[in-house]
Design brief:
mainly alpha; MFS_sugar_transport-like; cell membrane; MFS; MFS_trans_sf; membrane
């Protein structure tokens, strides 16, 4: 075990949290950046010959494509993390993410190379999704296994603080560069933040090279070696299928929150209300700053009152607040727009995000933990977040610009997530959920009461 809640963090634990957070920073940097660009840049750079609504839908379709590769990446890198080591998986994924993101920034526009431009965009987006698919499971597992048991929620939430930094970096760069001449921004300016993704990858690679596997992981590997057993992490996850299914359903509300409010929301403001995109980018940056500090507070709260309560409260909050959020977006008042972003995402969305990765890690035993987290997190993000901007755009277009179908869509997802959270099996005290599967008579790690 990693110690009690009052045990000071060791140097190894601090490096592990930093190494996990930098990868999550990269994951969210890549995806927030792509989401912002797909809302305001890609429709006019890569889909120039189409009707504006069709161009927006096409742009959001490429956004969704990346999510469909995330479960594949999760199934590839999850078993690597559980069988070879969390560190190995995390080193590979961070390099892949950096190369894919930089590649997007180097694609010539459709006006220069025709259909090859959107095809290259789809290719790099798929690569981005594949490598991101292996990121959260490894990072969450590594951090949670090293954190003190009574503070796993708080330290796991630092991963979402990394996401907040990514929010600030991606939105800040886009907002700052967007203040320059529009022609320059649409030609070169938007590309700079994407190419910088490679620099982030190098920094993350250096930090992760110093990571060490947790004692919990080493104990399980030793027990399996003593028993002569080589586990199959995917089989282990579905040997107890309830949590695999619940993990997917639990993740749905948090997966749509950011992409409905901060990605579709910006497109809605730009297309429906003619609001300059930079105002949405700046609001996203404000949200990111708050997220850095709010996420650990929610994580600490989950350590004290339970992760279920915090997450379910986030589900209920998002279902209730999404309507007033879009009412504020419709005012065209800059301060009210930013208030809407805070109301719709920081209050309920961060509550869910800050507790999800720790809760998922506590739903699976160490020999299949990375794989289990990846399956729940990535499939829910594909079905939820990946499709959310496209679904919301289509729903609003279908009813002539009204927002009520989006509110209903969000409410249904939140109800599903809340019910799944209430019924999942979660180990909050560091004990195993199931006996380690070994041959009869061999040494084994058993479930503790």
């Amino acid at each position: 075990m990693a110690g009690t809640a009052t045990t000071p963090l060791s140097g190894t634990q601090k490096r592990t949290i930093a190494g996990g957070a930098i990868g999550t920073l990269m994951e969210y940097y890549d995806y927030y950046l792509y989401g912002l660009a797909s809302a305001a840049i890609f429709p006019v750079v890569f889909f120039t010959g189409e009707d504006p609504i069709v161009a927006q839908l096409s742009s959001f379709a490429t956004f969704a494509v990346g999510f469909f590769l995330r479960p594949v990446g999760g199934l590839v890198f999850g078993p690597i993390g559980d069988r070879v080591g969390r560190k190995t998986a995390l080193m590979i994924t961070v390099v892949g993410m950096g190369i894919a993101t930089a590649g997007i920034g180097l694609i010539p526009p459709e006006a220069s190379i025709g259909i090859a431009a959107p095809l290259l965009l789809i290719f790099f987006r798929m690569c981005q999704g594949f490598f991101v698919g292996g990121e959260m499971g490894g990072a969450a597992t590594m951090v949670v296994e090293h954190a003190p048991v009574g503070r796993r929620g708080m330290y796991g939430a630092f991963l979402i603080s990394g996401a907040g930094i990514a929010n600030v970096a991606s939105a800040g760069l886009m907002a700052g560069l967007g203040l320059g001449p529009e022609s320059w921004f649409l030609t070169w300016g938007w590309r700079i933040p994407f190419v910088l993704g490679l620099v982030l990858a190098i920094i993350a690679l250096v930090l992760r090279s110093k990571l060490e596997e947790s004692q919990e992981f080493k104990d399980v590997k030793q027990a399996q070696a003593d028993a002569g057993v080589k586990s199959n992490p995917i089989k282990e996850v579905f040997r107890h299928p309830k949590n695999a299914i619940m993990g997917i359903l639990i993740g749905l509300p948090q997966s749509i929150a950011g992409y409905v409010v901060l990605t579709f929301g910006i497109a809605y403001m730009v297309n429906q209300n003619d609001i300059p995109a930079w105002q949405g980018f700046a609001g996203t940056m404000i949200v990111g700053v708050l997220q850095i500090f709010v996420a650990p507070a929610y994580g600490l709260l989950s350590d004290r009152i339970g992760r279920r309560k915090v997450y379910i409260a986030g589900c209920i909050g998002f279902a209730l607040l999404v309507w007033p959020t879009f009412l504020l977006f419709g005012t065209s008042n800059l301060l009210l727009i930013w208030a809407g972003m805070i109301l719709g995402f920081v209050i309920p969305g961060v509550a869910m995000q800050a507790t999800l990765q720790t809760m998922l890690a506590e739903m699976f035993d160490p020999e299949a933990r990375t794989t289990g987290v990846n399956i729940g997190y990535q499939i829910s993000n594909t079905l939820g977040g990946g499709l959310a901007p496209f679904i919301c755009t289509a729903l609003v277009a279908l009813v002539g610009g009204q927002i009520w179908p989006v509110v209903v869509y969000c409410a249904v997802i939140c109800v599903i997530g809340a019910i799944a959270t209430a019924t999942a099996n979660i180990s909050t005290d560091g004990s195993r959920l199931h006996e380690l599967k070994t041959v009869p008579g061999a040494s084994r790690l058993t479930r503790r009461a």
